[in-house]
Write a structure and sequence with these properties.
The protein contains seven helices and 15 strands. By secondary structure, the protein is α+β, with helices and mostly antiparallel strands. It has three domains: 11-70, Roll (Structural Genomics Hypothetical 15.5 Kd Protein In mrcA-pckA Intergenic Region, Chain A); 76-170, Pseudouridine synthase (2-Layer Sandwich), CATH 3.30.2350; 171-330, 2-Layer Sandwich (Pseudouridine synthase), CATH 3.30.2350.10. Helix 1 (24-31) crosses helix 2 (37-45). It starts with 10 loop residues before the first strand and ends in a 19-residue tail after the last helix.
């Protein structure tokens, strides 16, 4: 990638012969250093991408050797504004707020999701911005993926924000997830490790990498076995982007209905009578089968231990019932009913 004309923001490539036959949009997703497919499609349609000096459609098949230039269109300035959106508050005091985030709510405004986020809902609920220097992420200490449901703590004061950030950094904040993953793990409980960084081949994804990644440790325990899938209780020691999804996929047990790291085509390879059930499961699951079910932290004001739990939401519970789960939605193993201790 270079800027041969000295024009800021202009990206250019000579297409390698190995990329002959690749679609123009796929080439830019792979080489565009993190640009989203939606943004690339919009920019191609707007004439920001040229192949040997000519505009081409997004589906244009490259031949190899062409000169591709791309000047990304400026992004609109984002601003977080209050919005009256559903918000499931589990606990709130003067310092912190714990919310049960629904899927598919995004945590904070970003390109492609300028509003309708958890931050927009918090601004309306609180009547003012929570703590934090980032106006798009006020009070946000940790995040959940769009299609991950469950518990998230928000800092309401600068002191709380600093304290919770320190707990997250020194791994004293405990986070427990429930994940429905493909296949059968060789061990009923284990610790997964592997540094996580940007996937060098697909920049939109994260991956376990040998160079340039950040330390990541995930612990899992199988709590229910359905044969072709297993329900796992997962604890994070670190908190990297997509950590559970990456570690599970890297170990050949991707989370069910994961569009980025998953392999729901495995349903067709399930043996015997379970094949039909596997197909039904994939069709019934509306999103990533990952839920942040438990949260443990020390109160940033007085240091008392706080533990919160919330049952799996109705969409995930319906999938578990289809599989013949032995446990009720509020069973402590999940872990159960929302509460504070």
């Amino acid at each position: 990638m270079s800027d041969p004309d000295g024009q800021a923001g202009l990206l250019s490539w000579t297409v390698p012969d190995a990329d002959a036959g690749v679609r123009l949009d796929a080439f830019l997703v792979a080489h565009g250093d993190g640009f989203s497919r939606t943004r690339i499609h919009n920019d191609i349609a707007g004439g920001a991408v040229l192949v040997d000096g000519r505009s081409r459609p997004k589906g244009y098949r490259l031949r190899g050797g062409e000169h591709v230039t791309y000047r990304p269109a400026p992004l609109p300035e984002l601003q977080a504004v209050p919005q009256d959106l559903p918000l499931d508050v589990v606990y709130q005091d003067d310092d912190i707020l714990v919310v049960n985030k629904a899927a598919p709510m995004v945590v904070h405004p970003a390109v492609g999701h300028p509003d309708g986020t958890l931050v927009n809902a918090l601004l309306h609920h609180l009547g003012a911005a929570p703590a934090g220097d980032d106006p798009l992420r006020p009070g946000i200490v940790h995040r959940l993926d769009r299609d991950t449901s469950g518990l998230l703590v928000v800092a309401l004061t600068p002191r709380a924000h600093q304290n919770l950030s320190e707990q997250l950094a020194d791994h004293t904040m405990g986070r427990t997830y429930l994940a429905l993953s493909w296949g059968q793990w060789n061990r009923s409980a284990d610790t997964l490790s592997g540094d996580i960084g940007r996937d060098p081949r697909r920049r939109q994804r994260m991956a376990v990498v040998t160079r340039g990644g950040r330390r990541a440790v995930t612990r899992y325990e199988v709590v229910e076995d359905f044969g072709f899938v297993q329900l796992c209780r997962v604890e994070l020691e670190t908190g990297r982007t997509h950590q559970i999804r990456v570690h599970f996929a890297h170990n050949h047990h991707p989370v069910v209905k994961d569009p980025m790291y998953g392999d729901d085509g495995r349903a067709k390879g399930v043996h015997g009578l379970d094949r039909k059930l596997a197909g039904q499961m994939v069709r019934l699951a509306p999103r990533l089968m990952l839920h942040a079910a438990g949260l443990h932290l020390k109160h940033p004001d007085d240091g008392r231990e706080l533990s919160f739990g919330c049952p799996v939401p109705a969409d995930m519970q319906a999938v578990l019932e289809l599989l013949g789960s032995r446990f009720a939605a509020d069973d402590p193993l999940h872990p159960g009913s929302a509460g504070l201790s």
